[in-house]
Design brief:
- This protein is an alpha+beta fold.
- It folds into two domains: about 1-80 and about 200-209, no CATH class; about 100-165, no CATH class.
- It contains seven helices and six strands, in the order H-E-H-H-E-H-E-E-E-H-H-H-E.
- Helix 4 links the parallel strand 2 (about 45-50) and strand 3.
- The longest helix has 15 residues, at about 50-65.
- It is elongated.
- The N and C termini lie close together (about 10 Å).
Length: about 210
């Protein structure tokens, strides 16, 4: 990314976060933001290579802690929580706050069903078991049925599931967790060993230009 920007005539100051340090984990990433305070103050904008979470955390930090207001621009168009790889990924979780996987054979109807239905397939499921919304995809509820059948748990298929408690996913969601058992400085001190093992940092999380 830095090379591409330079080719476009941009002056780039790179801030590279070590492997294992994410922009959104401000207790750790703030150490590197502070170390590059002068570069941030002098930059016209901050380009953050992360999901929207990291972009907003960095934006808030440089406003409130570094004391400057700069354009903070996302380099990525995050699509959500996905699984798979190494080249193809699929959204698997909405982080909805009320996980239904234990009731639906480990297949999430909220992300796998085109309509997000919670109590069985719609009337438009195709004869070949494909989805009405996207004929290229298997119907999520057909897959749930087949997996329950293999596990000998078809009796669960006809159980009525209570309406999803969307109040648990009201936005923006706020979380409070206990302080980490290990001090952050201890975690940071352990990073060089990972970097040595993997041949050095490979992920440029922030770029200032």
């Amino acid at each position: 990314m830095a090379e591409r920007l330079r080719k476009e005539g941009k002056e780039v100051t790179e801030v590279i976060l070590p492997l294992g340090v994410s922009a959104c984990e401000i207790d750790m990433s703030s150490k590197f933001l502070e170390k590059n305070r002068k570069a941030i103050e002098d930059a016209d904008a901050v380009l953050v290579m992360s999901c929207g979470d990291g972009v907003q955390v960095v934006c808030e930090y440089i406003d409130n802690k570094i004391g400057v207001t700069k354009p903070v621009v996302p380099a990525n168009d995050a699509l959500g929580l996905v699984g798979g790889g190494p080249t193809k990924f699929k959204e698997t979780c909405q982080s909805c706050g009320q996980c239904e996987l234990g009731k639906t054979a480990g297949i999430c109807p909220l992300t796998s069903c085109g309509k997000g239905l919670m109590n069985g397939p719609c009337g438009g499921v195709r004869e070949d078991g494909k989805c009405e919304v996207d004929p290229e995809k298997d119907c999520a509820w057909v897959k749930i049925y087949e997996r329950m059948e293999k596990m000998g748990e078809l009796d669960k298929f006809t159980e009525m599931r209570a309406p999803h408690a969307w109040s648990k996913a009201k936005r923006p969601r706020l979380f409070t967790i206990e302080e980490p058992v290990k001090p952050v400085r201890t975690i940071l001190a352990s990073l060089p060993s990972y970097l040595t093992l993997l041949g050095g940092p490979e992920y440029e999380m922030l770029m200032l230009f």
